Amino acid sequence: MQSKKITSKMVIPVVTAVIAALFIYLGITKYGFWHEVRGPLPGFFPTIIGFALLGLSVLAFLGGRKEEGTTYPIENWYPALGVIGIMLATLVIGMLPSLALFVILWLKVYEKYNWKTTLVGLAIIMAIVIGAFVMWLGVPFPKGLIYNLIAY
Amino acid sequence: MENLQMLFMGFSVVLTLENVLVTMLGAVLGLIVGAMPGIGSLAGVALLLPLTYKFNPTTAIIMLGSLYYANMYGGSFSAILLNIPGDSPAVMTALDGYPMATKRNRPGQALFTANMSSFIGGLIGMLILTFMGPLLADLGLKFGPAEMTALLLVAMTSIGWLVGENPTKGVVLTMVGILLASMGMDTLTGSPRYDFGNMYLLGGIPFTPFVIGAVGFSQVLKLMEERNKKVEAHINQKLTIKGSMLTLHDFRRLLPPAIRSGFMGTFVGVLPGAGATTGAFLGYAAQKAFKSEEPLGSGAIEGIASCEAANNAAAAGSFAPLLALGIPGSGTGAVLLGGLMMWGLNPGPLLFSTNPDFAWGLISSLFLANLLTLMIALGIIPFLIKILTVPVKMLIPIITVVCVVGGYSTSNSMYGVIIMFLSGLFGYILDRNGYGVAPMLLAFVLAPLLESNMRKAFIISHGSLGIFFEKPISAFLIIVLFAIILTPVVKFVLRKAGVLKK
Amino acid sequence: MKKIALVLTMALLVSFAVFAGAQAEAQAGKAFTPSKNIDWYVTSSPGGGSDIFTRTIMDIAVAENLVNGQNVVVQYKTDGAGEVGRLLVSQIKAGVQADHTLLTFNSGDLMPMVKNTNNRFENFQPIAHMAVDKHLIFVGEMSKYKSFEEVVAALKRGERMVLGGSKGDDIACHAALIAELGVSQDQLSYIAHDATSGAITAILGGHFDLLISKPAAASQYVEAGKITPILALSTSRFPGNLNSAPTLSEFGYKNVEVPNWRSIVAPKTMSAEAVAYWTDVFKKVSETEEWNKGYIEKQKLVPDYMDAATFTTYGMNFQKEYLASIGKDK
Fold first, then answer.
1. DSSP element (H, E) containing C210
2. Cα four-point dihedral sign B26, B30, B32, B38
3. Cβ proximity of C188 and C212 under 8 Å
4. Three-class DSSP labels, B266-330
5. Taking CB atoms and an 8 Å cutoff, what residues of chain B touch C299?
6. B451, B453, B446: which is closest to B157 by C-alpha?
7. Mean pLDDT across B21-30
8. Which residues 247-266 of C are in CB contact (within 8 Å) with B?
9. C323 and C329 Cβ atoms separated by less than 8 Å
10. Are C57 and B180 in contact (CB under 8 A)?
């Protein structure tokens, strides 16, 4: 028997089927399906959709086996790693410094721009973020562990 | 025409220097707020509310009204230029706006179309508001839970048209969207649902970070492939307003969808619970039933026109129940209402009689805001197009930052950022595998409305299905629903039987 | 060299900590005055009732110079339907921050909190109870019933009817009402809307017969004649245009009321001096004309200041009764 590679096209329907099964199970057992007088209970709608999703997931799975697999170029994940980095750094040094750091590192180290371009890019971004979000809308960005320690 | 006279009186209230300046300020702020993903009209209005305490109530509400309204214009900017909707109604605009700007290389025209359609849609909405405001509001009242359920079921069938070539995949995502939306507090029972014991999930998945991630951040990940493409040289010639003007032919293409959506959007704006997002969606879906010169989703003018006109019209329409009955049609409306009450005005059935100069002043200010915003928006088109000349390599970190900040700002917590990030990954993987996320987003918005109305209808009827057929509006819509569902089936059968030619 | 630097840094840090601690200790004996920014948490969106309540008090306190010239920063924490924000405040450790943290807290916050999470009222330090709101039952122009007598008669005949209102305290009020009337959920069903305005829209459209609402949201419709009050859920009749509605006791039942209170609390760890300070600040606010004319009257509330100690007893009792009514022990 030929062994088929497991492509993400096949994984996705499996994932949606699992989600469907979960919602169905909780819908029926925990949230209730139908009440004589009160009509549909919280579990009703999600359970029905869950069944539909289950059926369609099977169809999608069968269709997916015939299609080619997809490639995921490795560079495409870099911004995602960047965001993870931003989130972690925010905990320590606060969000605004983390964002600035991300921009500098990205433009200078990864894209290999010179300092002038990097700083121009940084200035534009920080102008947008600080001008609109911080100064005008007053969004309280997290200040990070270090700031909180120093401040008190 | 008593209403017309009142309208002119309203203009005399508005056309003072102070009020005009304030309208302009509101318009500019609204454009900026609208363009920025993560901050919607709700946040903009709520945060500016304290600033307006200095002004007298009429001036203050004029500023807020123009801000709310201009927000609908601004949302399309980032949608068209970056494929990141500035707010939820702009999700539809991005579907045709971005391809028109990039693949068809007509960014200026795309922006122009969006602005003109917004103007037309809004104008129609305001005219209807002026002459039929209270009537319209009363009509909206007739749409109770049963009627809304029927209407939304009809609307849901049109999601089917959005699913593209592979219906199975599209519908799978629609269902996922519905399930995701059901997580959180169930209003009807006051208990949490599908929260899996997580305190954050008690509030459900917030829509804005979800959209920013699924559409915006996934876009960033896709852009990584285009980093090294050279920026096309011939974009330079389109940087003037002249280069962005629409041809007469283009104009003729955008008028019918814009007018249609103007009427439809106004009506949707009046309905309880439905707002600009629903309006934009229905406008776009309805366009599928009409001829478009280019296919929808490939950068067709009709696509942009139909949803932009609808969302502005819905914004205008939502003022009808607010002013005539004191009922806010949306979260933003509720903030406006709160502000009005703080200033001692009580919108309600008596507003037009007790404070006519205020009510009509507000309506006329909307006309003024519409015009001013159009002029400002058209004027900055060359500047906006310049954004497209920024090399992709630069854009990627910029957009990433905006996505993170936007995701954070909705609830001032990292929860928004995490949702944005996860939906971005999710959206990217789905996109790579040929699943389009648009149906999922729209199901996310419409399904909770459908479910809550359906359950309320059943509570009222004490569990019987009869209510959907007893009430006239609802019965009519159910018939329409069956017609839509059965037509393809009937056609299929008739063809097989040889009655209908293939 | 490096080692010495490390040791010095450690020594520096330790001495900072001791110094800060000593400062705090020195403060303990003296009366409290705010010495830094005050963080005031609101667990619902800006523009809503809690926000208006918070900002009004804040503006009055600043205007009357009751916060020692410090800034009050309103922080919105709406995640998890507000539970995350409440949990955060309840977990603030003792110290300067705890003394400068406040939280707007209503009965409408308490009920879902104890129903859906493990957080309880005793995890907070009650500071001041400011105002109270009660409910009425209304009928619309198209309702089948025109008075509460007709409603009672219809219920006795076994007719089913629907009551609409908002989520939150309206639900508890409905539950108390049907318990007193002796009818079941199925006979007098309840539909919760996200906000009272949704229920009002529905009743104006004639989609159901009964509406429960607090005076503020309903009064303009009463004046326009679109809805009529038929029952006051309180121990006495309401004033003004709501006066025509009788209370339950006039029908031979016991009065039912589930007051919707608005208050301010703080972390449990707030120092006693700070508690005394803040409870006094809000007492002064509650006595100003701006509060009474500019807020209470406009919002049609009943002013009801309770200081920290009185409010603690009231709140704990409220929680106990509510828990019992939903079948939880503690």
1. strand C210-213
2. positive
3. no
4. HHHHHCCCCCHHHHHHHHHHHHCCCCCCCCCCCCCHHHHHHHHHHHHHHHHHCHHHHHHHCCCCC
5. 341
6. B446
7. 83
8. none
9. yes
10. no
Q: Give the percent of chain C with pLDDT over 70.
A: 90
**How large is the ipTM?**
0.85
Sheet strands side by side (includes C72-76): C72-76, C38-42, C101-106, C260-267, C124-133, C302-306
Phi, psi of B205 (to 5 degrees): -95, 120
Structure tokens that stand for B280 in this block: 């934009």
Amino acid making up residue C218: A
Closest CA to B38 of B382, B282, B402: B402
CA distance to partner chain A, nearest, from residue C314 (Å): 34
Q: B154: closest CA among B447, B468, B458, B480?
A: B480
Give the closest-approach CA distance of C164 to chain B in angstroms: 10
* C327 in contact with chain B, both atoms CB, cutoff 8 A: no
- Partner residue opposite C201 with nearest CB, options B201, B327, B412: B327
Token duo for residue C165: 């209102």
- Whose structure tokens read 């709406």? C78
Partnered with residue C163 across adjacent β-strands are C190, C210
CB A7 within 8 A of CB B434: no
* Tokens describing residue C109: 């916050």
Per the CB < 8 Å rule, is C186 touching A38?
yes
Report chain A residues whose CB lies below 8 A from the CB of B402.
128-129
Q: What is the mean pLDDT of chain B?
A: 80
pLDDT of residue B502 exceeding 70: no
Share of chain C above pLDDT 90, in %: 35
Higher pLDDT, A70 or C228: C228
What residues in B contact C47, CB-CB < 8 Å? 42, 45-46, 49, 334-335, 338-339
Cα–Cα distances in angstroms (integers) from residue C8 to residues A146, A149, B391, C18, in the given order: 19, 19, 49, 15
Query: For residue A65, what are its two tokens?
Result: 């086996």
Q: What is the pLDDT of residues A74-109, one digit of tens each?
A: 878 888 888 898 888 888 888 888 888 888 888 887
* CA-based R_g, chain C, Å: 24
Question: Among C44, C165, C73, which Cα is nearest to B338's?
Answer: C44
pLDDT digits (tens, 9 = 90+) for C268-307: 999 999 999 999 999 999 999 989 988 888 778 888 899 9
Q: Which of A135, A79, C299 is nearest to B398 (CA)?
A: A79
Residue range A46-75, pLDDT digits in tens: 888 888 888 888 888 887 777 776 778 887
C-beta contacts of C116-119 below 8 A and 24+ residues apart: C116/B191, C116/B192, C116/B202, C116/C83, C117/B199, C117/B202, C117/C83, C117/C87, C119/C83, C119/C86, C119/C87, C119/C90
Report whether A31 contacts A20 (CB < 8 A).
no
Mutual orientation of helices B145-162 and B472-496 as an angle, nearest 10°? Answer: 30
Q: Sheet holding C161-166: strands in order across?
A: C188-193, C161-166, C210-213, C135-140, C227-233
pLDDT tens, B96-125?
A: 888 888 777 788 888 888 888 999 999 999
Place of tokens 């026109």: B305
Inter-chain contact B338–C223, Cβ cutoff 8 Å? no
User: What would the two tokens of residue A40 be?
Assistant: 């549909």
What would the two tokens of residue A128 be? 């947008």
DSSP C292: I
Q: Beta strands of C65-160 (E only): which ranges?
A: 72-76, 101-106, 124-133, 135-140
- The DSSP secondary structure of C92-112, one letter per residue, reads PPSSHHHHTEEEEEEHHHHHH
First-to-last alpha carbon distance for chain A, in angstroms, is: 68
Q: Are B223 and B98 in contact (CB under 8 A)?
A: no
Mutate to test the interface with A, among B33, B49, B176 (most CBs of A within 10 A): B176
Query: Please, which pLDDT band fits residue B61 given cuts at 50, 70 and 90?
Result: confident
Q: Are B27 and B66 in contact (CB under 8 A)?
A: yes
